[in-house]
């Protein structure tokens, strides 16, 4: 008889991690952070539960992309009204709201349900090096990716 695995309550403690996105590739950061948010990096991972940790990303304005994505990648949003489609290139959105680029990349890798919405609230993205989460004592997390890109 199959039973649903439920991790022990004492293993559900949440940790805080801080990641510096300066000169890191966007997709590599997004996949690592999505893994941490969902808890897939833990042995107690359960698909239907929130077993992940909190992640703080700093220096979002310095994230790198490769190829021609800086000028050709488009971000679209719609106001809900007729003719309300707005398009913006990566470079323009990075100049205006650099946090939104990382947030959208990670949100697309999370589940498309109420659990995904709850996991997304554990992501904190900041454009500069300052963040208000010093009291949580975040642990520095380095992502071993290929740095750089065509800036």
From TrEMBL:
NCBIfam families: rplM_bact (TIGR01066). GO terms for biological process: negative regulation of translation; translation. Belongs to the universal ribosomal protein uL13 family. Part of the 50S ribosomal subunit. GO terms for cellular component: cytosolic large ribosomal subunit. It comes from Merismopedia glauca CCAP 1448/3. The keyword Ribosomal protein applies. GO terms for molecular function: mRNA binding; structural constituent of ribosome. It holds the Pfam family Ribosomal_L13. InterPro entries: Ribosomal_uL13, Ribosomal_uL13_bac-type, Ribosomal_uL13_CS, Ribosomal_uL13_sf. This protein is one of the early assembly proteins of the 50S ribosomal subunit, although it is not seen to bind rRNA by itself. It is important during the early stages of 50S assembly. Keywords: Ribonucleoprotein, Ribosomal protein. This is Large ribosomal subunit protein uL13.
